[in-house]
């Protein structure tokens, strides 16, 4: 059965470039850079260049949502990233990031680090990439943080797209073509057809009742003849 979708970007919520913010490793002295370019309401590109030489093998380039979102995604099963095709997948490893906590910036304007919940995926072909909530792991500055509290799905304040070196494993130009990012929920057959099945059962009951009444009438008629 088709999934229930809550489009966050793309789909029935057209892409808009000015609600995305750049956050690259240049804030830490790196040389990576990223962009979120909107080619049309249903086509966006997360692209740029990941440099790992400046920071000795480390590096990141990312885009994240503007301000605080306060999304309640508790009733959903995860996030689905819809990659455009047919030849728009670069085979590199990306991550979707979620945040519950945002802190005021430092005096110099730099953003303070907080725990991010990251789910990785490889853009090896066009299509939908489903990420369940258990795929999101808590990280702090790129490293797993095992003592982090649970992700609060009732108040997701930020969504982001991340390109990281994964400690020297990838670098260079990257380009991810996107149709949408959405929250998804699996809809079972029973849920999808519950009302329809209920109406069918009611119709069947009416047919049975009419057949029973008809049989009873014939029985009374035959008894009278006898």
UniProtKB/TrEMBL annotation:
NADH:ubiquinone oxidoreductase intermediate-associated protein domain mapped to chain residues: 18-177
SUPFAM superfamilies linked to this entry: Galactose-binding domain-like
One annotated GO biological process: NADH dehydrogenase complex assembly
Record InterPro entries: Galactose-bd-like_sf (IPR008979), NADH-UbQ_OxRdtase-assoc_prot30 (IPR013857), NDUFAF1 (IPR039131)
Pfam families referenced in this protein's UniProt entry, alphabetically: CIA30 (PF08547)
Top-rank taxon: Eukaryota
PANTHER family: COMPLEX I INTERMEDIATE-ASSOCIATED PROTEIN 30, NAD(P)-BINDING ROSSMANN-FOLD SUPERFAMILY PROTEIN
Protein family (similarity comment): Belongs to the CIA30 family.
Protein name in UniProt: NADH:ubiquinone oxidoreductase intermediate-associated protein 30 domain-containing protein
Organism from which the protein derives: Conoideocrella luteorostrata
